[in-house]
Every structure is written in structure tokens, then in C-alpha cells.
């Protein structure tokens, strides 16, 4: 004889239906948030470096050269004012010491561009990207701690691996983790009484409100505010042209400084020769 299904209280059924809808919305927002943080934001930063960063690097290099020359001239002129011949080796050592932060910044800019090139050259195809996002959303629904606060330790460890795979766009790893997720199972809902169901509904509503605020906030900050501009070829060309003008002005100034330094070197009857490169 088959068992008769348990008839749910109408209010419990209504609450459970609302909870299911709210949970789906929370899953959608959590997935959107993680995509913004782990995929969209780094991609936008990389796109910025490729479209604008290369020109900013050249401008910074030009500023660096000008700053070094200006300081060299100051030190040489100070020695001449004291009636001394400039100690070129000591001046070079001092310049290197004073400009260490500039060199660090220069390396950082170059590393960012290198990382951007690597990222943009290793993006998933549209089909792979779609599959990765589909898998991730299903796993968010099954194992995200904000959806299921009572995960086991095994489930939490698996979730951390899922996040890492999503962050680096490792589709093969995500596919394997999806299979593991089927083995460990999804966290079961814990609400049973009407009060617990009410509390679960209110908790989900608060979580949704918080996520909406977080998403709105982060999308009002760079690089998200540059998203449309980076797709605007006219804006990109205008910004590049501005940087090109700045670079040209700095290069012209550098040549004047090199000429002046050559004159100071001639006054001391000894000094280095400077190329025009």
C-alpha cells in the first residue's frame, strides 16, 4: 500500500513558494556579483591597459627621464656653484637612490600591461564562457554559503575550489567540480515550522536588498564607469592623442635638458655624453 503524500499547511506552502522565488533571485544576484568581481572587472582593467595603458606607460617613461635629468642638472649645478668639479659617479648613485620609487612604478606599469596582454590572449570562447557561467550558477544554487549557511566542511572546501576555478576561467576544473558537487549533494533546507519559514523568507529578502546595493555601488566605480568609454573608438583615440601630445612635449623638454647638461659638463671639463634616443 503506497503512502499518502503529506498535505502541507496552505500558509507553509505559500511561504515555501515565496522562499523558492527569493532563493532563485538571490542565486542570480550572487552569480552576477561574482561575475562582476572575478570576470568583468579584471577584463575591463585588462582592456583599459591594452587601449590606454600602453600610452600612459610611455608618458610615465618620458616623465621619468625628465625628472632624472632635472635632478642631475641640480646636482651638477650645485657642485659648480661650490667651485667643485661634479663627481659624476656619486651623482649617478644619488639619482638612482632618489628615483627608486619611480623605477618601482615603472615596473608595476609594465607588469600590468604584460598581465593584461596575457589575460586578453587567453579569454574563453563565447561558447566556453557561456558553459562556465551556466555551471557556476548551478553550483551557486547548490553550494553558495549565502544560500545554504549550514554547509558541511566538505561542501565548504568544494565551494572554495569552485570560486577559484571561476576566477581563473578554468572550464575543465569547473566541469570536474560540478561532478563532485553531485556526489556531496546540496545542502538541505532547514526551515520547517511556519516561524522558521517566515524567518527564512525575511532573511532572503534582506540578502537580496544587500546584494542589490553592493552591485549598484560597485558599478558606480572604475573600471565599470569606463565600460562604455572603452567601447567608444572616438573617446579612445582622443585619449591616446592627448597622451601623445604630452609625450611629445616631454620629449622636447628632455632634449633641452640634455643640451643644458652637456653645457654644464663642458664647463667642468669632464662629463658624460648623452645620446638623443
Q: Which class do the helix and strand fractions yield?
A: mainly alpha
Q: How would you classify the quaternary structure? A: single chain
Largest sheet: none
Q: Can you write the helix and strand succession as a string?
A: HHHHHHHHH
Number of separate helices: 9
> How much of the residues is beta strand, in percent?
under 5%
Give a written overview of the molecule.
The chain has 277 residues and is an all-alpha fold. It has helices spanning 10-81, 88-98, 100-120, 126-143, 153-168, 171-184, 194-218, 227-230, 233-267. The N and C termini lie far apart (93 Å). Mean pLDDT is 90; it is low at 1-6 and 271-277.
Sum up the structure in keywords.
mainly alpha; disordered N terminus
Short characterization:
The chain is an all-alpha fold and 277 residues long. It has 9 helices and no strands. The chain is 78% helix and 0% strand.
Chart the SSEs and their pairings.
Layout: H1 10-81, H2 88-98, H3 100-120, H4 126-143, H5 153-168, H6 171-184, H7 194-218, H8 227-230, H9 233-267
Helix pairs in contact: 1-2, 1-3, 1-4, 1-7, 1-9, 4-5, 4-6, 5-6
